[in-house]
UniProtKB/TrEMBL annotation:
InterPro entries: WAK_assoc_C (IPR032872), WAK_GUB (IPR025287)
Protein name per its UniProtKB record: non-specific serine/threonine protein kinase
Organism this protein belongs to: Dillenia turbinata
Keywords associated with the record: Glycoprotein, Kinase, Receptor, Signal, Transferase
Catalyses which reaction(s): L-seryl-[protein] + ATP = O-phospho-L-seryl-[protein] + ADP + H(+); L-threonyl-[protein] + ATP = O-phospho-L-threonyl-[protein] + ADP + H(+)
Pfam families named in the record: GUB_WAK_bind, WAK_assoc
Single Gene Ontology MF annotation: polysaccharide binding
Length: 280
């Protein structure tokens, strides 16, 4: 008996995506340029996960990411690794250093912080910070909070051609240093004006091997996103032909079904089969 029910269950399970997959067009999925926008992200209000609401905007096929520190261009959304790659036009790289405090840095709204964080092996290199910067307060001069992150840091960054343009300073020897590298974890907010820094660079490495030097690093901000507990309920919603969204009033997740909204999923038949199969 159990075997028959389980077999039926698996048959239904494999048919549901076929039946609904062809008919149902996910109203929440979208594109911007060549980037696919899918759960937990969305371009429309009411779609996606509420932690990512009012975050992405598509303008002339360019996907923009907006948080309290400013707007960034999204270069990539890696759904498998749950990561976004961002670009800030005033982000310093190996070829150019932008001073004047125009860079965004990286500061997220406190309510969004559980959902978005730069990856632990993304290095932030703060450039031209004043001696009065909060970065350098409370540390004996030989023990500044500046550290390499995954083999990337200012010592290596100084080898970039951009530094020869900025000028031959006593690189690494001046106090405070011209550049101070750290992970996002170390300070939780890269606010250039608060930290009294002139500019910043940010780099990450996707290669499992140690890279030759700073010209091989990828410049940009690599951000990890997480949806925490809601992932399973979203999968159940999508399996029933719904689209994952949220109630714009109360900001709680809902399953957007054809013509109605459900707090679980669109397909009561699928729920019954699951319930029967669970009884043995
Ligand atoms: C998307 O387009 C950009 C240029 O606009 C290109 O650099 C990038 O490689 C493309 N990405 C994919 C995944 O095709
Ligand atoms: C379902 O929820 C979405 C998003 O909150 C809303 O735009 C839509 O009007 C709702 N539909 C119904 C039928 O309540
Ligand atoms: C950055 O710090 C400055 C000065 O403390 C503050 O006025 C500003 O609101 C902060 N910016 C963000 C995005 O938190
Ligand atoms: C880390 O930084 C130090 C200087 O503080 C440098 O000498 C060293 O080579 C760096 N280590 C790695 C693994 O990049």
């Amino acid at each position: 008996m159990t075997l028959v029910l389980l077999t039926l269950y698996f048959i239904f399970q494999s048919f549901i995506p076929i039946i609904f997959g062809n008919v149902h067009i996910n109203p929440c999925r979208g594109y911007c340029g060549n980037l696919t926008i899918d759960y937990p992200f969305a371009l429309q209000s009411g779609c996606g996960h509420p932690g990512f609401r009012e975050l992405l905007f598509c303008m002339n096929d360019v996907l923009m990411f907006h948080i309290s520190s400013g707007s960034y261009r999204v270069l990539d959304i890696d759904y498998a690794y749950q990561a976004l790659t961002l670009h800030d036009p005033h982000l310093s790289t190996c070829d150019s250093i932008f001073l004047g405090g125009k860079g965004n840095g990286f500061v997220v709204e406190p309510w969004r912080a559980p959902y978005l964080n730069p990856v632990p092996d993304n290095v932030f290199m703060l450039i031209g910070c004043s001696a009065q910067s909060p970065l350098f307060q409370g540390f004996p001069s030989k023990h500044l909070p500046c550290h390499n992150v995954s083999g990337m840091g200012c010592e290596e960054y100084y080898d970039c051609p951009a530094w020869s343009i900025v000028g031959p300073k006593r690189l690494g020897l001046s106090s405070p240093p011209e550049c101070c590298s750290m992970s996002y974890e170390a300070i939780k907010s890269i606010n250039l004006s608060k930290l009294e820094c002139e500019g910043y660079a940010s780099a990450y490495s996707l290669a499992p091997l140690r890279l030759e030097g700073p010209h091989e690093w990828s410049y940009g901000i690599r951000v990890k996103y997480s949806v925490q507990r809601n992932d399973a309920s979203c999968r159940a919603c999508e399996a029933s032909g719904g689209s994952c969204g949220y109630d714009t009033g109360e900001v709680r997740p809902v399953c957007l079904c054809k013509g109605w909204n459900s707090t679980s999923n669109c397909d009561s038949v699928a729920v019954d089969i699951t319930t029967v199969a669970a009884i043995d």
